[in-house]
Amino acid sequence: MPSYSLTVNGKSHTVNAAADTPLIYVLRNDLNLMATRLGCGMSQCGACAVLADGKEIRSCTTTVSRIGNKKIHTIEGLPGLWAAKSGKALTPEMVHPVQQAWIDEQVPQCGYCQSGMMVAAVDLLDRTPQPTVQQIRNHFTNTAPSPHLCRCGTYTGIMAAVQRASKSIAG
Amino acid sequence: MSNLIPVLTRRDFVKVGGALVVSASLPSTAKAAAGADAGYTLDATKLVSWLELHADGSIVARTGKTETGTASSAFYAQAVAEELDVDPRKVSIIGGHTDETPDGGYSAGFLGGVNNLKKVAAYTRQALLGLAAERLGVPAAGLTVAGGVVSGGGKSVSYTDLVKGQQLSLAIPVTGRLARIDPKDPIGITDLMGITVTGNPPMKPMDKYTVVGGSHPRPSIADIAMGKAVYSGDVKVPGMLHARMVRPASLGSTLVSAGKLDKVKFPTAEVVVQKNLVAVVSPNEWEAVSAARAVAAVTKWTEWAGLPGSGNLTATLRSAKWEDVGRRGDPAKAEAGLAKAARTLATTYEQPYVRHAPMGAFVATADVKTDGSLTIWSQSSQSQGARAHIAHIMSVPVEKVVIRWAQGPGQYGRTTYGGDGAMADAAILSKLVGKPVRVQWTLSEDLAWSSTSPGWVADVKIGLDDKGNMVAFKSDWYSPHENDARMIGAVLAGMPTISPKTKPFYPAISTVWPYDKVPAVVESAYGMANLASESANGGIRGNIMRTPWQRQQNFALEAAVEEAAAAAKADPIEYRIRHTSDKRLIEILNETSQAAGWKSRPSPSPQAAKSGTTPVRGRGVGVVIRSGAQWVGIAEVEVVPATGVVKVLSFTTGVDVGKVMNPRHLKSNIEGGTVMGLGEALFEEVTFDASKVTSTDWTKYKIPAMGDVPDVKTVFTSRNGRGINGGGEAANTVSANAVAAAFFDATGVQPRRVPLTPAYVKSILKA
């Protein structure tokens, strides 16, 4: 099996995997990063979203051979991402403002889709720090390749949490 | 001390090996202390099985019920903290492991589930007060507790100090038994409620609550947000193989020959077969996925085409042979009322099959040992029921089975009977290969092979007097079997399964009748077997889904009342109020309509139109009473007649649950349930051809995305003196009625089916 060098959550890893292995299996099984969740497996739901150079990708259909030099961040790596962005030292207590907003708004019900939802929120706020309600709705619904789906119906909570995180990042 | 207090026997602790009120015990200690049986079921009569007060002031409470996403773990912690007068952040809940919890029970309806822990906490408080009275020399009646510190007579002592170094045994009175297979039971498994704590320990009156009623955060949410939560699919057992299933080509196919594996391409994968159960296992998950796809492409199955096709569902149900399964009301009186009514309305309603459709497909990991004992890691919301199913399937005593619970994607009722899911697949495969096996279903597999909420048809007749008031109501509701909790892996592998009977086991009429001023009412329900139930693989298995039976029957009821209000040219809310003396329902109707900006007038709207490209708007209401709570949903929709597209512009959901246990999480449950119901209103339909389910991805089984639904406005007020009633479940029931009524308001055409897809909308607007 070929070997790949990956930078995930600020750390370098070398993994042996078939070239067509979707990234999610490498993250979960080889790197033990379990917070990235397998939803549909065909880029239709967003549960498996991770950041590649700060932009959302779907790890269920993006193969490990296509990652190249892109820096991957999963939910476990959001505190480190925030430390780098805010210029603060990374401590064990560090929480990304999106994660804090998700906690403060108590967004998750079953929580299965929420890793992907938080990834989508980080992606959105990185490019659009103060999104309107319509921009948030649009981002979670109409960004390719698919909407981010939540069967528990926590969309009202997600909307509130994205707005809260936006305020928090703005300071 | 009060004679309600159970036996507090310090002398017993030696005998039982140190049962405790206070200890820093580990689960193994607790197990030993609680007299765990060979299969590690804790003895529910011993306090240690339920509750531990640790030296640092933290409290662990144990229950068979689990967190399903409704924040029951927050409420349970609040209830325990309330009775003990401690900080709820000190209370953690262990739920669902059959070897670490005493009571079993299902995780739907946590209001019932919380009663066990509440009573255990109340008994414990009395015991602690007894100790404090002795220690402080002050009668128990003169003691107060705050923050886990007992005070009286100018002295105080903390719970922790009070019992430090002491070990107490407190007997907990219980009744009932854990879930078990019962061939005589209509669903084949019984005692699903598990063990119930009995007696009446003094409990805090509602108006003295300080913890229940606050927005206590759910502890697991921080873990989910930080990526630390462990889900059922995250379990890794040393030596574990990954499995993917190769399912039959149709719902009734049997295996002709399993495909051969290309060992060059997939060197570490193996094909495993038992009867019609085919799987590929591999130590590498992606190899299991790839190899299973390759094997599936060359596996041969018999042809089978025994389904009517979803397009013919209504005709099929109309021509089916039905069994009478339940009736409420007086048929003769209702017929007489209809006969003498000034006017009668006769309508029919229908809904296709819909399904739970969680975000993650079924997953389970099983480790079957050579002696037949086994452990399964699962997200089932009925662990003891799952344990009974698995013991039955694997033909081992229940004592040999342990179910370890971990949170999973929301199940919305499909695991409430302990069945359905990947547990049987995992256990059978683990036994065959002699290693732990993790089975992950695919989304398409889940949308095709998991159980569903069956389609239905209903006929309603309403008699109106000369003022348009309802004087008689008759409904007949027809739906296939909805209690088939078998696990498909066991069915395919030819292992023993429970044998569900044709008839629904539940009171077949599940509406809670809101309109008591209607003098003559009869409601009847009729059952039949699952579609293609005679086929090799059991056909389309029906199962309960969020607000089961009542959700469907209430749609027919409220849609018919909507038509009656229109016939009476009455405002739909005023018309409902006219027919009920339920003061709480009237109150929440008024509060919700006010919040929604409802203006009184009959439907349809004066601007209603059923043709053209100009959007038309309408508003509508739906009502349900469920688990002691009154619900009202109000929708505002926009319809473009030419395209048939329906858009929900706003939605307001109001509920009177009496005392609100946790406002933040009640709000979340109302919002989420409303959105789930909007899926049924607008999109959801399980489609099938003659041989298989065809709605097998998210483009074919569409559920609401954020942009499909408005932010949900919620209306609720906490009120003492009305009990604590169900707020987690039933919001999904009012959505479809409110949307359908709003559609009528906008177009002047009554929809008699959901979902309101463009095709259906265009067909009824054209008619």
Characteristics:
heterodimer, A: alpha+beta, 5-stranded mixed sheet, 38% helix, globular, B: alpha+beta, 20 helices, disordered N terminus
Task: Walk me through the topology.
The complex is a heterodimer of chains A (171) and B (767).
Chain A: E1 3-8, E2 11-16, H1 23-30, E3 49-52, E4 55-58, E5 71-73, H2 78-86, H3 97-104, H4 114-127, H5 133-142, H6 155-170
Parallel strand pairs in A: 1-5
Antiparallel strand pairs in A: 1-2, 3-4, 3-5
Chain B: H1 12-16, H2 27-33, H3 47-50, E1 51-53, E2 59-63, H4 72-84, E3 91-95, H5 110-136, E4 144-146, E5 149-152, E6 155-158, H6 159-163, E7 174-176, E8 180-181, E9 189-190, E10 195-197, H7 219-225, E11 241-246, E12 255-257, E13 270-274, E14 277-282, H8 285-298, E15 300-301, H9 313-319, E16 323-329, H10 331-339, E17 343-351, E18 363-368, E19 374-378, H11 383-394, E20 401-405, H12 423-433, E21 437-440, H13 443-449, E22 456-464, E23 470-480, H14 488-493, E24 520-528, H15 550-567, H16 572-578, H17 583-595, E25 616-626, E26 629-640, E27 645-656, H18 663-682, E28 712-715, H19 731-747, H20 758-766
Parallel strand pairs in B: 2-3, 11-21, 19-20, 23-24, 27-28
Antiparallel strand pairs in B: 1-2, 4-5, 5-6, 7-10, 8-9, 11-14, 12-15, 13-14, 16-24, 17-22, 18-19, 18-21, 22-23, 25-26, 26-27
> Most extensive interface, residues per chain?
A-B, 61 and 60 residues
Distance between the termini of chain A: 48 Å
Number of strands of chain B: 28
Report strand order across the widest sheet of chain B. Answer: 13-14-11-21-18-19-20
> Helical content of chain B, roughly?
25-40%
Identify low-pLDDT runs of chain A: none
**What general form of chain A does the structure show?**
globular
What is the CA-atom radius of gyration of chain A, in angstroms? 15 Å
Main sheet record of chain A: 5 strands, mixed
Average per-residue pLDDT of chain B, rounded, comes to 92
Strand runs of chain A, count = 5
Order of helices and strands of chain A: EEHEEEHHHHH
For the residues shown, what is the average pLDDT of chain A?
A: 98
Strand content of chain A: 5-15%
Note the main sheet of chain B. Answer: 7 strands, mixed
Low-confidence stretches of chain B: 1-28
Instruction: Assign the structural class of chain B, choosing from mainly alpha, mainly beta, alpha/beta, alpha+beta, or little secondary structure.
Output: alpha+beta
Oligomer: heterodimer
Radius of gyration of chain B equals 28 Å
